[in-house]
Please model this.
Amino acid sequence: MKEQAAAIEILHERLVGEYGVPIPQRALPALDELVLTILSQNTTDTNRDRAWTALKQSYPDWESVAQASLRSLEEALQPGGLQRVKARRIKDLLLQIKREHGAYDLEHLRNLDLTAAREALSGYKGLGAKSINCILLFSLKKPAFPVDTHVFRMLQRIGIHATKDLTRANNELQEAVPDEISYPFHMNVIRHGREVCTARSPKCWRCCVTDLCGFDQKTVE
Model:
């Protein structure tokens, strides 16, 4: 664990030197972030945003979404793909939240510590470890560390984790990433994974951490 934490600190410093410290964006309400994470599952950011825009344009509030027919909800979510699964999942979650808390609202989670908030979100079907970490970090501003495909790929190549399971990585890396760098480290790793350490033909010749990387298929310009 100490070696893993030390490697994370070094990588963080290199990435800050390359990209600077990212400024946190305005947080969405927790329920909005929850729905957004569902829309982001198994699709691109562009298609997720299209589905989100269509959803917000079609329904004025979460109650109208919860009361909508599945067919109409599926039509609204069609731009994001997997609309049948996501429509049912969103509808069921909204109804569960209203039943448990009396309103379509999850802002009470802000008053919980990280462990309690994570446990509460784990009670909602359809939210995996990555989705929960996204809600914790981006909306609730808690020191969670989401591991998406870009983060997973890059940290594996660097040798910070060896697991081949994304869910396991989301659970295991939480303790290794210091609370104070969870947001900037996450954002910079994603940026580096998208722009340099890509899945195919990574741009190893312009990588600021290539000397730390054990990837055996490095590319040259």
